[in-house]
Amino acid sequence: MKLRIIWLGKTRDPWIKEGVTEYSGRIGRYLPLAIDELKDEKDAPLEEGRRREGERLLKQLSPNAVLVALDERGQQLDSVKFAEFIGKHRDSGTAELVFAIGGSYGFSDEVRNRAAKVLALSAMTFTHQMVRPFLLEQIYRACTILNNEPYHH
Ligand SMILES: C[S@@+](CC[C@H](N)C(=O)[O-])C[C@H]1O[C@@H](n2cnc3c(N)ncnc32)[C@H](O)[C@@H]1O
Which segment of the chain is annotated as a signal peptide (predicted)? Predict the structure, then answer.
């Protein structure tokens, strides 16, 4: 199974870039991972920007990709349950598991409707940039849990 993460907008802060590089490198030891950064629409009116970003994101998906949309209103899982979720897809023939992180204004309904799961990392709202290393660390943690390695305590 391939993992893919798609996000809207450039990663600007060096400390976020560092976290992204660190944890994406760690994940690569367990599963192939691709990260795609799409152009955001931060200068467009809010609803229109969300709609355009959503269209751009959905065009990227192959029909059999399983989409997980990150959204603070989604389902919260603990790290073990999140690992089980990834493991279930890995072991049941899912070819591509795609995690999507929205832009500054979040996702359109079209993206949420396409998603197999809408996942919250917390009920709190983080910046769209900060979610990137947080998600990557949780995926790395999940990989270590699935491999019975002593990282998760
Ligand atoms: C600043 S938030 C957008 C918040 C906006 N109020 C909304 O309606 O979605 C930007 C992106 O960061 C991600 N995000 C922020 N906080 C999150 C959380 N607690 N759990 C999961 N994703 C989160 C989501 O992908 C969201 O689309």
Answer: none
Answer yes or no: is the ipTM higher than 0.90. yes
Residue nearest to atom 12 of ligand 1 (CA): 128
User: pLDDT tens for residues 95-121?
Assistant: 999 999 999 999 999 999 999 999 999
Residues 6+ apart with CB under 8 A from 59: none
User: To 10 degrees, the CA torsion angle through 40, 56, 52, 18?
Assistant: -20
Give the closest residue (by CA) to ligand 1 atom 9: 106
Q: Is residue 31 in contact with ligand 1, taking CB distance under 6 Å?
A: no
Is 107 a pocket residue for ligand 1 (Cβ < 6 Å)? Answer: yes
